[in-house]
From TrEMBL:
This is Transposase IS116/IS110/IS902 C-terminal domain-containing protein. Transmembrane segments: none annotated. GO terms for biological process: DNA transposition. Residues 3-41 form the Transposase IS116/IS110/IS902 C-terminal domain. It comes from the Bacteria. It comes from Candidatus Tisiphia endosymbiont of Sergentomyia squamirostris. Pfam families: Transposase_20. GO terms for molecular function: DNA binding; transposase activity. PANTHER family: TRANSPOSASE, TRANSPOSASE FOR INSERTION SEQUENCE ELEMENT IS1111A.
Length: 90
């Protein structure tokens, strides 16, 4: 699911050589929607705020933390759709 949206890292490895991981491709509109949802939610939505703050406090770059939150939000949305449930803030 995350590779369709374009937030899954691809490895550039060959033999014993380990290359860098990069994120490229995917559908722009869902990726942009997830990005804006995380930007809005990382300050107000407790679930994303805890994840984002934990990653930033562990010295991850802010963009990396945002992409991790995007992936987590995508997983939650996918699970809700799969189970035909409605999201409720508790």
């Amino acid at each position: 699911m995350s590779s369709i949206v374009g937030i899954a890292p691809y490895a550039r490895d060959s033999g014993n050589k380990q290359g860098r991981r990069f994120i490229r491709g995917g559908r722009k509109i869902p990726r942009d929607a997830l990005y804006m949802a995380v930007l809005a939610g990382k300050n107000g939505f407790q679930y994303l705020k805890i994840l984002y703050d934990r990653l930033v406090n562990n010295f991850k770059p802010k963009k990396v933390a945002i992409v991790a939150c995007m992936r987590k939000l995508l997983e939650v949305c996918h699970k809700l759709i799969q189970q035909k449930r409605v999201f409720v803030i508790k």
